[in-house]
Amino acid sequence: MTALRPSSTSAAGTAPSTRLAALARRPWGLYAAVAFVALLTVAAIAPQLLATHDPLALDYPLSLHAPSWTNWFGTDESGRDLYSRVIFGARESLLIGLGAAAVGIVLALVLGSLAALAIKPAAVVVDRVVEILFTFPALLLALLLIAISGPSATTEILAVGLGTAPGYARMIRGQILAAKGSAYVEAATALGHSRSRIVFAHILPNALRPLVAVFALSVGQSIVWASSLSFLGLGVAPPSSEWGALLDAGRQYIVQAGWLIVVPGLVIVAVALAATTIGRHLQSYLERGEK
Amino acid sequence: MSASQTVDQRTADDSLDAELDWPVSRVRVENLRVAFLVGGVRREVVNGVSFDLAPGECVAIVGESGSGKSVTARALVGLAGRNGLVDADALEIHHADVRRLSPGQWRRLRGREVGFILQDALVSLDPLRPVGAEIGEALRLHRWGSRAARASRVIELLTRVGVPLPAARARQRPDQLSGGLRQRALIASAIALDPDIVIADEPTTALDVTVQAQVLRELEEMKRRGASIILISHDLSVVAQLADQILVMRAGEVLEQGSAAQVLGAPTHDYTRALISAVPTEGTRGSRLSPVPVPDAALTASAPASAHTGPILEARGLSKHFRTPDGGLTRAVDGVSFDLAPGETLGIVGESGSGKSTTARLVLGLETLDSGTVRLLGQDWSGVPERRRRRLRPRISVVSQDPLSSFDPRWNVERILVDALAASEFRGAAARRARAIELLGFVGLGAEVLERFPLRLSGGQRQRVAIARALAPRPSVIVLDEAVSALDVTVQAQILDLLVALQASSGVSYLFISHDLGVISHLSDRVLVMKDGVVVETGEPDEIFRRPSHPYTRELIASIPEFDPAAISERK
């Protein structure tokens, strides 16, 4: 007991505990998110590699079976394997999410840049347009578009993109204005550089740095948005196994076969979580780079 | 047990001495060491600080950034932080060992026994609370008096620190007060309970000289009333006003320690000598401030691209008004006129809000004039659109106070310098890179800096890169807006030496803007004194400093802390 010298205990005792602490500090959430996104990417590119059944093969005797060893996520009212349907639905769901996020960001980029950089009257007009768009709830905008052109994957992409654009446009505008007012832009002006050179060499690259992270966040959000539109029957039509459509179809059997709505719901949540996690890590990585 | 034994022994041995001529020491520090745990690694930041502080005495800890002076002050009041490891052979306040105090015991000690004045009053005061309530809080926490007694005590304290209209000021929030009033409110809260010991960490650093003079007078008054003051500062002229004892610190070590007269008058350590000679004053004009030699290459800096013989800059009646949030107008700059000759340095000196920086921006064409004209190299400059100004832009460049924010954060030094050569005669990547290396040579930096990002450079290196960038287009004039104000005094000395050398070799003109009269008088051929947007006095530094004609200039000059090491050594 008395022989236990403090230095020896600390040398022997801290090593495993610091290693454990270092292990705990690793971004396990990020690893899980990346792994999940990788899995979904495989599912989207080559679903047959992961699926256990034909997603469209009807097997009525097997209808509404609970999850089991053969049907991991159970079966639907026509006896189709839910796991395989989720896998085959990945492509459409992800494309809608990516597409909608891309539409939203590109639209926001145009509107935000114009609002911040165009000459006075034009900038004011764009600013007001963004503000007007902003006052509409995103869902209302989406519904309006679908009412005009009917439900389809393309409409869904445009609708979600249009719905999310105003928020991002405001963010981009703020970023550009901050860069525009910075001391390094002033220094470039004092060096006699032209306006276009300053915009492309300094303002845009600095203002748009966080956009990668925003895009990742937006993909997750867009998938949730698109799913809710499909759930309302305003998105992709039923034979497709897009995840929102799965939710919509499963809704009628919520009492007898809860898994039909729980499983696709969990997948949507997981995708949104993964995209958000990756986005947040990108964001803090970029911010650290600035410091 | 062993501790009490030594104490007993010492009291027995020394009791006679102590009664006879030993001052009662209020603070006794022996071999103070502070380390921080950074990511599990122990990093020593203070190593072996010792001093005794008697009533009515002031000990000053002097050093530059990173010297460990602030950490020392914080460690003395148990504020070293959670990962700070404080150790000392003795650490006594009022003869009580404070090394093992609990946070609660520390709280009782702070405020009542020890007052702490922090540097930045804006962040140290609660922005949402009237300052009177903030000061009253210190009293309330220590259960001082009744509510009514506390209210009148607050007014009394504000009066004591020289706040005019104390009753009205007590109801105002920090953002409604000027910097000087805020700092005085902070001092009032630190001395609310009449602590015997006051620790002041850079108490005047962010203040204008006239306000600094008021704060120093208040600290002197407290000292006269018997308070013991621990003053932390980088500014030797402030320290010279107040200190009886001085500790010079660098990188956590005490390099020199002794009475103020000894340290300032007859310094023994080279670093102390460098610190003292680095202080720019009117008397240092024409001599080098730093023992570090100016880079040889600086003596070969190329002449301005344009050989112009008339005035480089002609400013006539510059005026600029700003709209205040409440709809009124402030006259930031009002009728400022001056000429700048080739190779001349014109100093513009003034306190915050005097309009000196706005004048710089107007001259640079970064702000539009309300009225007046600026001509650059005899050509119209202020009256033409930016598109036509661009051709002349390379003739005028700028170095600002904060170089870091003036560099694109994504760019390394090479890109920054090459970018500044866009309009130059240097064409092609290789030629520009070679010129960038040459420019770095002028400012005493090597080619290895090219790959670095400004963020990874020291403050002095950054300012050198900013000067290299300003030299890149071979300008006729460089506007230096508080260009050395944020630097440590020894680094400032090197940069000032460099500026003088570069001007001598290239013949560039400087428009040098500063709040620091010492720097201005060291560097300028002519001086413009500004107050409230107006030039109140102009002339050669000799005339202005010896025979100021305007009352404001007189006040300004009277506020400069006396700094004459020879006089100090005679004083004591």
Task: Describe the overall structure.
The complex is a heterodimer of chains A (291) and B (572). With 291 residues, chain A is an all-alpha fold. Chain A has one domain: MetI-like fold. In chain A, helix 9 runs antiparallel to helix 11. Chain B is α/β, with parallel strands linked by helices. Chain B has 3 domains: 170 residues, Rossmann fold; 76 residues, no CATH class; 179 residues, Rossmann fold. Chain B has 22 helices and 21 strands. In chain B, strands 7-8-9-3-10-11 form a 6-stranded mixed beta sheet, with helices on both faces. In chain B, helix 5 crosses helix 6, helix 5 packs parallel to helix 8 and helix 15 runs parallel beside helix 17.
Concise overview:
The complex is a heterodimer of chains A (291) and B (572). With 291 residues, chain A is mainly alpha-helical.
Any chance you could write out the topology, listing elements then pairs?
The complex is a heterodimer of chains A (291) and B (572).
Chain A: H1 6-25, H2 28-45, H3 82-117, H4 120-135, H5 138-149, H6 153-180, H7 183-190, H8 195-207, H9 211-231, H10 243-250, H11 259-290
Chain B: H1 2-20, E1 27-38, E2 41-53, E3 58-62, H2 69-76, E4 84-87, E5 90-93, E6 96-97, H3 103-112, E7 114-117, H4 121-124, H5 131-141, H6 147-160, H7 166-170, H8 179-190, E8 197-201, H9 209-224, E9 228-233, H10 236-242, E10 245-250, E11 253-259, H11 260-265, H12 270-277, E12 313-323, E13 329-340, E14 345-349, H13 356-363, E15 371-376, E16 379-380, H14 386-389, E17 396-399, H15 413-420, H16 429-442, H17 459-471, E18 477-481, H18 489-506, E19 509-514, H19 517-523, E20 526-531, E21 534-539, H20 541-546, H21 551-559, H22 565-571
Helix pairs in contact in B: 5-6, 5-8, 6-8, 9-21, 15-17, 16-17
